[in-house]
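Worked example

This section walks through a single chain of length 98. The input is the sequence exactly as stored; nothing has been trimmed or padded.
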Amino acid sequence: MGLIASRDRVLAEEVRADRDQPPFDRATRDGFAVRAFDVSAGNVLRVMGQVRAGEVWQGGALAMGECVEIMTGAPIPAGADAVVMVEHVLREGRGGAG
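Given that input, the structure is written out below as tokens.
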């Protein structure tokens, strides 16, 4: 039976997952993992490094004024509670957005 054939049907019983998927908070866009307070306060942030999908940030929890460049699918570093999309960033010393 194809997906279209399932229209107007409901499950006969509740279905529950036995674990969260993904099992961690992850970035849904390329950008910079930040503390939302730092961004809302208009602070200039220091880039501490980069984390790619499949890697785990090893630099410890982000402190005030710090951020980590992050790629889609990568786990959010400790201390970060937001990701600013790369298209919304002006990176000094690198020229232009991103």
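What to look for: The CA atoms of residues 32 and 69 lie 4 Å apart.
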